[in-house]
Design brief:
eight-stranded mixed sheet; ProC C-terminal domain-like fold; 8 strands; alpha/beta; Rossmann fold; about 270 residues; 12 helices; 2 domains; elongated
C-alpha cells in the first residue's frame, strides 16, 4: 500500500480531536491531497473546516485506510458505522486506548486487517512515540503504511505481540503524566528552598525539557549523562544519594508506578 494508493482510494479518519488533528496536519503537510481524506467528527473545529478535507460526507466504499481516533467511550457508537468496510481490502488502524484487536474483529469481522497503536500526548506537537502491533491479516506493506502515517506525530516502534501494549501504556502512554508531576514536584521543592513560585516553575520546566532534549540528541546513554553532571561529593551527588536510594528513592517508586499503570491497562482490556 502506497501514498498513491491512499490518495486514490481515500483515508477515513474517525474522530478529529487533538490526536486526530495532529496526524491530519502531518499528512496534509506531507502531500496527501485534502480531497482524499474523509473525516467523521460530531463537532468539527474551525481549523478542520479550513483544511479542505471531506467532513461528515458520504464515505468511499472501500478506502485504503480507516484510522480510528475516537475516545474509547465513543467507540461503541462510532465503530458500527464502518462495519461495511470490514473483512476486505481496507486496513483499520486504531489509536484508541484500551480497546484490543479482538474487539475490532468482533465488530468488523474476523477477515479484517487491524493494527492497534498506542501513541502518547506529546504527539499533539509531533514529539510522540507510538507502538504498533497488527493481527495476522496485516500485510508487511500495510504495517509500513501505518508506520508512515503515524510518523506524522513522532517516533514509531513495532511490538512482538499485543500483550506488550500494556507495558507500553505503563511507560510511554501514561509516562508524560509522570514527567509533568515531576515538574510540579521539582518546582514545589524549589519553593520550599525559598524561590518564588513563578521562578521555581520556570526553572523546573526548562530543566526537564532541556534534559529530555539532551537525552534524545546526545550519543551518550542517560546513565553517562547523569555521571557527567555528578562531581564527586558535590551538590548533584548529595541530591542523587536521596533520589537513587534503592529502598525508598525513585527506582522502587518508578517500578511500582509503571506496574500499577500496566496492571490497570490489562484490567481495561479484559473489560473491553
Amino acid at each position: 500500500m502506497t501514498h498513491d494508493d491512499i490518495a486514490t482510494r481515500g483515508l477515513v479518519l474517525l474522530g478529529c480531536g487533538k490526536m486526530g488533528s495532529a496526524m491530519l496536519q502531518g499528512w496534509l503537510e506531507g502531500g496527501l491531497p485534502a480531497a482524499s481524506v474523509h473525516v467523521i467528527d460530531p463537532k468539527p473545529s474551525d481549523w478542520l473546516r479550513g483544511t479542505g478535507v471531506n467532513i461528515n460526507a458520504e464515505l468511499p466504499a472501500s478506502p485504503a485506510v480507516v484510522l480510528v481516533a475516537v475516545k474509547p467511550q465513543m467507540m461503541g457508537e462510532a465503530l458500527p458505522l464502518l462495519r461495511a468496510m470490514g473483512g476486505g481490502e481496507t486496513l483499520f488502524v486504531s489509536v484508541a486506548a484500551g480497546t484490543p484487536i479482538a474487539h475490532f474483529e468482533a465488530v468488523l469481522g474476523t477477515g479484517t486487517p487491524i493494527i492497534r497503536a498506542m501513541p502518547n500526548t506529546p504527539a499533539a506537537i509531533g514529539r510522540g512515540i507510538t507502538a504498533i502491533i497488527g493481527n495476522s491479516l496485516v500485510a508487511p506493506a500495510q504495517m509500513d503504511t501505518a508506520e508512515a502515517l503515524l510518523s506524522a506525530i513522532g517516533e514509531v516502534v513495532r511490538l512482538a505481540d499485543e500483550e506488550q501494549i500494556n507495558a507500553v501504556t505503563g511507560v510511554s502512554g501514561s509516562g508524560p503524566a509522570y514527567v509533568f508531576h515531576m515538574i510540579e514536584c521539582l518546582a514545589a521543592a524549589g519553593e520550599a528552598q525559598g524561590l518564588a513560585p513563578e521562578l521555581a516553575m520556570q526553572l523546573a520546566k526548562a530543566t526537564v525539557a532541556g534534559a529530555g532534549a539532551l537525552a534524545m540528541q546526545a550519543d551518550e546513554t542517560p546513565e553517562q549523562l547523569r555521571i557527567n553532571v555528578t562531581s564527586p561529593n558535590g551538590t548533584t551527588q548529595a541530591g542523587l544519594d536521596v533520589l537513587m536510594n534503592a529502598r525508598d528513592g525513585l527506582p522502587p517508586l518508578m517500578e511500582k508506578t509503571v506496574a500499577a499503570a500496566t496492571d490497570r491497562s490489562k484490567e481495561l482490556a479484559r473489560d473491553a
